[in-house]
Design a protein that fits this description.
The chain is mostly helical. It has helices at residues 24-51, 58-75, 78-86, 94-130, 134-149, 154-182, 188-215, 218-237, and strands at residues 11-13, 91-93. 23% of the residues are buried. It is a multi-pass membrane protein.
């Protein structure tokens, strides 16, 4: 019979920003506000697209699913992080850590594919008006820019580019942060930078996406105004 000399791993300790104990109340407040804004913004985007018939197009179909995926993958890590800011026991079970990692990885990967599908959708839309991976996004936007530059009207080029500006902003932030995380040379400072970048990637970006698509999108702003008028009318009738 063979005997193995080893210790079974049953839990991990998530230190995160644990070294800055005096900043933990402030960090808790900041990340709670970000998480709440992200949940409200993405949930609102889903409900808005679902209720407004003018937004029943392929682009908004993907945007609705992007909002759902953002809710899922930020919720995989943020509640536990918030908990660690207010409790002394920062441990997580091996099974809990594994589930958290799998859920986060699945939905973060889904985010990449949805962004790629949205890029292809924008390219197809622009191409016919004229006549799952990072490479798909880059290739699609090269084709989009080439198609826009071929348009004879400056006003037409501006209008067409504005329809892609929101998605291009979201893609740049998403993959820019991801590239920053993985292209840094290994060092002690790089580890601290990775913490900040991973927080931005996993918590801040899901909050920014609904803001980017709502603030730069005329159709979404008009839908928000329409729903606002309906609520105002109902309030007056009551």
């Amino acid at each position: 019979m063979k005997y193995w000399n080893g210790t079974e791993v049953t839990e991990f300790y998530l230190w995160g920003f644990g070294g800055q104990r005096q900043l933990q109340p402030a960090l808790f407040t900041v990340f709670l506000v970000i998480y709440t804004t992200s949940m409200v913004g993405n949930t609102g985007m889903i409900l808005l697209i679902h209720t407004d018939s003018r937004l029943q197009t392929p682009m908004y179909f993907f945007l609705q699913h992007l909002a759902f995926v953002d809710i899922c993958y930020t919720s995989a890590i943020t509640p536990k992080m918030l908990q660690n800011f207010v409790v002394d026991d920062k441990s997580v079970t091996f099974g809990g850590c594994l589930v958290q990692l799998l859920v986060y990885a699945i939905f973060a990967t889904s985010d990449c594919y949805i962004l790629a599908a949205m890029a292809v959708d924008r390219y197809v839309a622009i191409w016919f008006n004229l006549t799952f991976t990072v490479s798909v996004v880059i290739f699609s936007y090269i084709c989009i820019l080439a198609a826009i530059l071929k348009m004879p009207s400056a006003a037409g080029r501006k209008k067409t580019f504005s329809t892609c500006a929101s998605h291009l902003t979201a893609v740049t932030i998403f993959y820019g942060t991801l590239s920053y995380m993985y292209l840094q040379p290994p060092s002690e400072q790089a580890q601290e930078n990775m913490k900040v970048a991973s927080v931005f990637y996993g918590i801040v970006i899901p909050m920014l996406n609904p803001l980017i698509y709502s603030l730069r999108n005329k159709e979404v702003k008009e839908a928000v105004k329409m729903i606002g008028k309906k609520f105002f009318t109902l309030g007056q009738n009551c």
